[in-house]
Structures are given as structure tokens and as C-alpha cells.
Amino acid sequence: MSDFKTLNKITVGDMVLHYWIDENKHLEWTIYPIAMAKKVCKPDFQKNTLSLVQSKLVHDAYDKNFSNGLTMFNSQTSREMVFVDQRESHDVNDLMVTTTLKDQHQNLYDQKILYDSKMKRLKIWTEFTNKTSETEKLEYLTSFVLNSLSPFYGRQLTDNLQLIRLRSKWAMEGRVEQRPIEDYDLEMSWKSSGLGIETFGQNGTMPVRKFFPIIGLRDTKNDVTWLAELEGKASWRLNAARVDDRLVIFGGLPDSDDGKWFKYIDSGETYRTPYAYITVGQGSLLKVSSRLQRKAKHKTLPIIYNEWGTTWGHPSAELVHESVQLLEKHMIDTYVIDAGWYKSKTKDFNDSIGDWQVDEKQFPQGFTPVVKDIHDHQMKAGIWFEFEGLGKDSQKYNDTNSLVKRDNWPVTTIKRRFLDMTDEHVKKYLDKR
């Protein structure tokens, strides 16, 4: 068993940050409500210390727990990390906690936690600094790791922990999934030789495809819920895992095996992961999840009317005029003209996406009088663009110098190719349009 001792406990608002260190200077941490502090138990039945930063360098070994190809969690890089120091800094509203680890190659890993007293969440990220004389290739680096769940038992129970996820698909976003961890094979095994893990996420720039970048764990016996949310601007992974006694949740970018992510870091350079946000609280999921979000600045949101479900890709000046006369009687703030307002050789609005030239048949006098018509009926005017896309009849569809490519071939779907938004020529083209 690992011989854990408390390294530090830091109270922030109604939460406690608790750091445990073992006899080999390996470090874990967890958080819990201050109201539950007296119930916290040291992880005396845990055989493995799972570092509060998870990483893998290309020249280090994978773990041995039948997990190769599933995850780079608990690699040699992570297993060899040891505690260096911990620093706290304060200003008027914020507390920053920096916990520094080093690996066997003397590279440094800073776990950064920012607590804003106006919020009830922690902002967390990891910074890797290459301290070797050579370029290092990172194959994996987490934004956050949250250990020792649940910390309220000397030995973990069964049927008391639930995994929380938000499922999603196009036009059906946000279905809560809350199921016992045993449904994911995350209960304890008779021997800690195989990693139990539930991994989910997505590749690319659709951050809520299949799942939202949120994970939670609920201790039903103690009415405590932990939640973590990723910044989620591109590819991401979230995980719940168990090697032996206590669960761990972790996430951030995918690894090189799973999501083809890697990063070369030159000697002396520092790389920062995307941000994550975590919190813990008691009460309903709705109550605890509200701690992750900033309060809305305005009590009312604008009401937007989008004409897509009226014209199905065939808007016109005449139809806009008919609609705004009816909508003026209601509390509509903005009228949006959707797909099909541009010239097309066919009746399919998909075919000419990308040229963005107003269709003179449907809008004989252009957009100027149409916009005025909308304004005259006490609404703002909006217009639909998917400015990165190109239909097959678009002038730029075959302009390969302007396109996103993979293996030197344009990325192509049945109805689209895509502009390379990093290209200066493309930026000028879109500015003009």
C-alpha cells in the first residue's frame, strides 16, 4: 500500500483542496465541501499513487495495466514525477496555487489552480517546461486530474458512486446520463492488474458532438457531486478510471494514440494546456452545476426569428416583407435570413455556398431595401453564413491553394470542401465578401 501523508490543505470559499504525498514524493490531490471535512479518510487501501499531472514523453514507457491503445494514463513519465514545491499567491479577489512536479528527465510540470472569490469553481491547467538540452515530444498532457474519489471512506463501497455525462447529437443537445459506475466496469477488482476506464470525447471542431465536455461523479450516500468541464474548443477527452481503491477523473487534450495529438517542445520552452474548470458541492445536480457557470449579465435574452423553417432554403424579398408584417405584432428582436439568399445554379442551396453573391432573382434590388424593411418593422436584420464551407459549384471549390488539406488532398465531404482559415488570401477573400 502507498503510505500517504497530508502535504497541505487549502480552504477556498466552501471547498477544501487536499494534497496527499506518499513515501516516494508522488503527489495526489482531491477537493471536497468544507462541511464534509471531518469525514475525509486517508487512502490507506490504495496501492498505486496516481500523479496529479498525467503526461507521456515519446521515449518513456507505457503503463502495464492492459491499457495500451486505450490511454496513456499512468505512463512511466507520470509514475516518475515527484513533488518539488507548492506556492500560493493572492491578490484582491484571486488565489493562485502552483504545484510543481518534475519527471526523471528533470522537466517541470506546474499544476495551476486559480480560485476567484466571486465564483464557486476552480480554473485549472498544466504547464510543461522542457528542462533538457534537446527537443521533447509530448504525446500526452492533461489539463486536470482529480484523485481520490470518493474521499469519505476508508475502503470504497459499492453502489454509491454515479458517473455523470451530458449526451448530445445534432439538434438534440443536453441529455443527462447519470448511471452507477458499475455499469462502466469501474468497480474494484480482486487484483489491481487491469485499468478500468471509461473514455469519451471527440475529434475536431464540433465540441459537443456526442457528448458535452463535462464529466461528473456523485457520491449518493454523502450527497456530494464533483463536476469538471473542459474549455473544449477543439479535440478533447474526459475519463473516469480505477486502478484499485479510489476513482480518478481526468481530461484535456487527447493523446497521440487516440486523437493524433502531440507537441514538440524546444529546450527551455513552456507549453500550456487548455483550461478546465472544476467544482464540488452538495445538493441536486442543477444546484452544483450552477457553480461552473457565470451568472448571466442580463435577465432577458433577445428573441430571434429565423426564417429557415418557413422557406427551407428559398428566401426572397417578398417573403421577408410578408413575414415582418406579421412578426411586428410580436416581441421579436431580430429577423434572420437563412440559407439560399445567394446565387445558385441549382435549386439546392448547398451547391453554391462559398461565393456569397446575392441572388438577384429572389432579391431584385439587393439587400439594402430588405434590411430597411426589417428595420422599419422594429427588428434588427441578421443573415446566415457558413463562411468556412464551399459547395461544389462555388468558384473556390477547386482552388486547392485555399483549401484545408489532409495528406495533401482537399478535405471533402459529400456536399462541402473547406477554406483554410489560416491563409492570408482566404482572410482577404472573406473580408471582401
UniProtKB/TrEMBL annotation:
Pfam families in the cross-refs: Melibiase
UniProt xrefs under InterPro entries: Aldolase_TIM, Alpga-gal_N_sf, GH
Superkingdom in the source lineage: Bacteria
Name of the protein described by the UniProt record: Alpha-galactosidase
UniProt source species: Companilactobacillus formosensis
